[in-house]
Design a protein that fits this description.
The complex is a heterodimer of chains A (286) and B (487). Chain A is an alpha/beta fold and 286 residues long. Chain A has helices at residues 22-27, 68-75, 110-122, 142-147, 167-177, 190-202, 236-239, 250-257, 261-281; strands at 4-11, 14-20, 33-37, 45-48, 51-53, 58-64, 84-89, 100-106, 126-133, 151-156, 163-164, 183-187, 207-210, 226-229, 232-235, 242-244. Chain A folds into 2 domains: 2-89, Elongation Factor Tu (Ef-tu), domain 3; 100-257, Nucleotide-binding domain of ferredoxin-NADP reductase (FNR) module (Rossmann fold, 3-Layer(aba) Sandwich), CATH 3.40.50. Chain A is built from 9 helices and 16 strands. In chain A, a hairpin with a 7-residue loop joins strand 3 (33-37) and strand 4 (45-48). Helices cover 35% and strands 15% of the residues of chain B. Chain B has 20 helices and 16 strands. Chain B has helices at residues 3-10, 38-41, 54-61, 71-74, 82-90, 94-104, 108-114, 121-124, 127-130, 136-150, 173-184, 201-204, 213-225, 242-247, 279-288, 314-325, 346-354, 422-426, 458-461, 466-486, and strands spanning 165-169, 188-192, 229-231, 253-256, 262-263, 276-278, 306-310, 330-334, 358-360, 363-370, 376-389, 395-399, 405-408, 411-414, 418-419, 453-455. In chain B, the strands form 4 sheets. In chain B, strands 3-2-1-4-16 form a 5-stranded parallel β-sheet. Chain B has a 5-stranded parallel β-sheet with strand order 6-14-7-8-9. In chain B, strands 10, 11, 12 and 13 form a 4-stranded antiparallel β-sheet that branches. In chain B, helix 3 (54-61) crosses helix 5 (82-90), helix 3 (54-61) packs antiparallel against helix 10 and helix 15 crosses helix 16. The relative contact order of chain B is 0.14. Classes of the chains: A alpha/beta (286), B alpha/beta (487). At the A-B interface, helix 1, strand 7, strand 14, helix 8 and helix 9 of A face strand 5 and helix 15 of B. Bound molecules: flavin-adenine dinucleotide (FAD) (2 copies), iron/sulfur cluster (SF4) and FE2/S2 (inorganic) cluster. The site of one flavin-adenine dinucleotide has 42 residues of chain B, from helix 11, helix 16, helix 18, helix 19 and helix 20. One flavin-adenine dinucleotide is lined by residues 33, 45-48, 62-64, 66-70, 108, 111-112, 212-215, 241, 257-258, 264, 267 of chain A.
């Protein structure tokens, strides 16, 4: 069960894996996620379902290695199994023909925005996508995003590729061009989603963001994932993960994401130490 | 349902009927339970009471005067034949005793540990009129533990296959009871459980020091040996809907036992600060995810120094005692009524007190205060006094104007109750719900508004008890069996 069938490294520290999961592959819709637990000692971590092949019974995850759990996931090889995989979780994206939809993906956020762009395109929308990263090497999924977008704009923070600047600069350009935007979907670092929402609010453009709060169960049982949206507490895992970007308290979300920084660092240090020991113990290793 | 409403439910207030023997002052005193020392036990997660020895158990069982009209049974939601199982212990025939027990209660090792006996059987026991009641719960635990240690777990005869498929949603006590009983009757039963482990609250909520997980797993193994299949990581409503269970997966009947898994918050300012947990989250991290053994296990939990727990039920006591064991320097339980109204079991309150948990009674939080980085630094509370009785008959706590003060804490655990989780019911509009979101089911048959769909346990009656969930499972399986045999 939950066997890794394919594994690709698509940029530094970003991995793209295909996992067999008949059932989730059949059921999932754009915007939904899974929670996985690598092994008996693992924590439960959420990941967006980037794509699925219902016939083959597979789902695809793309993740950035940022801490102990994502590094360990990245260490798994083709043929390895993931102990627990639960989903599809969260409410699917509301898909309809809105007219013109701008899909904004920043950093690893391009991965979760991809299925939404694809579904929006399929529903007959004109899809304009803006994807951005720190530099050219870190940009992911350019080809695939271009396939599901009528227009694709690229930005890099250092100007090594595409527009020199942030995704918000490209969005501002679109607005300046006079493009009538009916809906904006933005996924990426919290700061980026906040900036996009600020901008679109000014111009009255409806904006959906997908929030990545820390989670445990993912079924509404613990409340760990709570965020404030329009002065109301919401659970990201069941009420979301998508919310009205103009209503989200991004500052609170960012603070809540940092709740376990000391422990995350401790886990990471230990991970590195163990990995070095493992490598040294391997034949030929030093 | 909130903790406050809950305790009414625990009390099965039945008037003693029939003639009873004239109570005499009991000659043998109630036998004390040997326990881990408080000083020692707050540093480990091992079970607190050690259990009766054979000798103590036999002495305690002999305190039962074998009433002709045993009123204790009226207090037991599953009507265990209490005097009969006690008599067998007194006579040293433990095999017979466990057999009598298991006729009515399949999970005595669990019930003997977590049932609120002082509100049930022991509350009515006649020996309790002049002295302390017979320790029925401790003897229940004794006999179950004796069986686990001394007997091969025997699998009862299983009826020939009926060819009927039953889906059970949720592997808590209600679901496990239904599954086991229907499997014995020859039905093909599959449990779908949202989490990666079975047991429901018994695994993710109630801590190891009160209910060792090995005991829960042994009960689950038994249910599996009866032929029940368990599919984990299957959130019904998302993974499969009830319609799909019927139409695509070919199930003939469904039992819903999804519990009351939605944590309530106070809705006071500051509740989303870092360091504020629902009891569900705190206990799930500690128990299910084993955060107490971080970093051997990956799930972190805050290393709290000063903890406030809001609430007065078992959930609050479990949270407080877990916080102590995770190394907190001080743990304060904040409850808005007085000790008398606390819904937690007496034993839990006593244990918490012995372990050094501080109780601030007649105190109600009004806001949680944070520092610049969004971390909890204190909680503002208001002193209360008891006013007129409310609808539950208890005196309503009323705030004393201007009595606010700050309790300095770095962690707040909100344990004010759990409600119905809407995940499954939202995906199933055909199910009729009451105004709290609980599924409406027939008292006797547990049948819901959907044909072939039965429900029981916390999802129907609101957060209650393990034994009531099992009792519902018993009623449901009988009705379901009847229904299945008409198909
Ligand atoms: C609904 C949802 C969908 C997600 N989809 C994806 C995805 O498709 N691809 C992907 O790479 N990641 C995704 N994430 C984020 C992913 O779950 C986290 O990166 C992961 O849990 C980090 O675990 P770790 O142990 O590797 O890192 P940790 O040690 O836990 O954290 C390392 C660093 O990452 C930050 N971090 C921790 N948790 C999160 C989080 N939930 N979101 C953002 N930063 C976090 C921490 O602040 C810390 O600085 C998603 C999160 C949610 C809630
Ligand atoms: C901390 C705590 C301490 C307690 N202490 C005591 C005590 O001392 N004595 C006592 O008698 N009672 C106690 N209780 C109450 C008691 O545990 C519950 O009343 C009892 O467990 C209810 O049983 P249940 O089967 O209805 O539900 P639960 O035990 O809640 O089990 C429900 C199961 O269903 C699963 N589920 C939920 N939704 C879905 C879905 N959509 N699909 C699939 N599966 C799903 C859940 O993951 C869970 O495993 C306590 C409760 C808590 C939280
Ligand atoms: S346990 Fe108490 S009430 Fe029950 S039969 Fe014995 S003495 Fe009577
Ligand atoms: S992750 Fe537990 S409620 Fe959302």
């Amino acid at each position: 069960m939950n066997q890794i069938l394919e594994k690709k490294i698509i940029s530094e520290g970003v991995k793209d894996i295909t996992i067999s999961s008949q059932h989730i592959a059949r059921k999932r819709k754009a915007g939904q996620f899974i929670i996985l637990r690598i092994d008996e000692y693992g924590e439960r971590i959420p990941m967006t379902i980037v794509d699925s092949d219902p016939k083959a019974g597979t789902i695809r995850l793309i993740f950035q290695e940022v801490g102990k759990s994502t590094y360990s996931l990245g260490d798994l090889e083709v043929g390895d199994e993931i102990l627990d995989l639960v989903g599809p979780l969260g409410k699917p994206t509301h898909i309809e023909n809105f007219g013109t939809v701008v899909c904004v993906g920043g950093g690893i956020g391009v991965a979760p925005v991809y299925p939404i762009a694809a579904a929006m395109k399929e529903a007959g929308n004109e899809v304009i996508s803006i994807i951005g990263s720190r530099d050219k090497d870190l940009l992911i999924m350019e080809q695939e995003m271009s396939e599901v977008s009528d227009r694709l704009l690229i930005t890099t923070d250092d100007g090594s590729y595409g527009l020199h600047g942030f995704v918000t600069n490209a969005l501002q350009n679109l607005i300046d061009e006079g493009v009538k935007i009916d809906l904006c979907v933005a996924i990426g670092p919290v700061v980026m989603m906040g900036a996009v929402s600020n901008l679109t609010k000014e111009f009255g453009i409806e904006t959906v963001v997908s929030l990545n709060s820390i989670m445990v169960d993912g079924t509404g049982m613990c409340g760990c994932c709570r965020v404030t949206v329009g002065n109301k507490t919401q659970f990201v895992c069941v009420d979301g993960p998508e919310f009205d970007g103009h209503q989200v308290d991004f500052k609170e979300l960012m603070m809540r994401q940092s709740a376990y920084l000391p422990q995350e660092k401790e886990a990471m240090d230990r991970y590195h130490k163990c990995k070095l020991e493992r490598l040294a113990a391997q034949p030929g290793g030093k | 349902m909130t903790e406050d409403k809950k305790d009414k439910k625990d009390i099965k207030a039945t008037k003693p009927k029939g003639k009873r023997l004239k109570p005499k002052k009991p000659k043998i005193p109630r036998q004390p339970m040997p326990e881990q020392e408080p000083k020692e036990r707050i540093h480990n997660f091992n079970e607190v009471p050690y259990g009766f020895s054979i000798e103590t158990a036999m002495i305690e069982a002999a305190r039962c005067i074998q009433c002709k009209k045993p009123v204790c049974i009226d207090g037991c939601p599953v009507e265990i034949n209490i005097p009969a199982f006690l008599l067998a212990i007194k006579e040293g025939d433990f095999e017979k005793s466990i057999k009598i027990m298991k006729n009515d209660n399949a999970l005595p090792a669990i019930c003997g540990r977590v049932c609120p006996q002082e509100d049930q059987c022991e509350k009515l026991c006649v020996i309790g009129i002049k002295g302390k009641p017979v320790a029925i719960g401790r003897l229940e635990r004794f006999i179950a533990d004796w069986e686990r240690k001394n007997m091969e777990i025997s699998i009862p005869e299983i009826a020939p296959s009926t060819g009927k498929k039953v889906a059970v949603v949720g592997a808590g006590p209600a679901g496990l009871t239904v599954a086991g009983e229907l499997a014995r009757l020859g039905h093909d039963v599959t449990i779908f459980e949202a989490l990666h482990k079975p047991g429901g609250v018994l695994i993710y909520g109630i801590p190891e020091f009160r209910l060792p997980k090995a005991i829960v797993m042994a009960e689950v193994d038994y249910v599996k040996k009866l032929g029940v299949k368990i599919v984990y990581n299957a959130v019904i409503g998302k993974y499969l809907t009830l319609d799909e269970l019927f139409n695509e997966e070919g199930f003939h009947a469904i039992f819903i036992g999804v519990g009351a898994g939605l944590p309530y918050f106070m809705n006071i300012p500051g509740e989303n600060l870092n360091g504020v947990y629902s009891a569900n989250e705190y206990l799930t991290r500690a128990n299910l995810m084993k955060a107490y053994d971080f970093p051997n296990y990956d799930t972190p939990i805050m290393r709290s120094k000063k903890v406030a727990v809001i609430g007065g039920g078992n959930v609050a006591m479990d949270s407080a005692r877990t916080a102590l064991r995770l190394g907190a320097e001080s743990v304060t339980v904040v409850y808005r009524r007085s000790r008398k109204e606390m819904p937690a079991r007496d034993e839990e309150l006593d244990h918490a007190e012995e372990e050094g948990v501080i109780f601030k009674l007649l105190t109600n939080p009004t806001q949680i205060n944070g520092d610049d980085d969004n971390w909890v630094k204190s909680m503002t509370v208001l002193n209360m006094k008891l006013g007129e009785p409310d609808s539950s008959g208890r005196r309503r706590p009323v705030p004393i104007e201007g009595s606010e003060w700050d309790l300095e804490v770095d962690t707040v655990i909100v344990a004010i109750g759990n409600g119905a989780n809407p995940l499954l019911t939202e995906a199933t509009p055909e199910l009729n719900l009451n105004k709290w979101g609980n599924i409406i089911a027939d008292d006797e048959t547990c049948l819901t508004s959907m044909m072939g769909v039965y429900a029981g346990g916390d999802i129907v009656i609101g957060a209650a008890t393990v034994i009531l969930a099992m009792g519902a499972g018993k009623r449901a399986y009988r009705a379901m069996h009847k229904y299945l045999m008409t198909l």
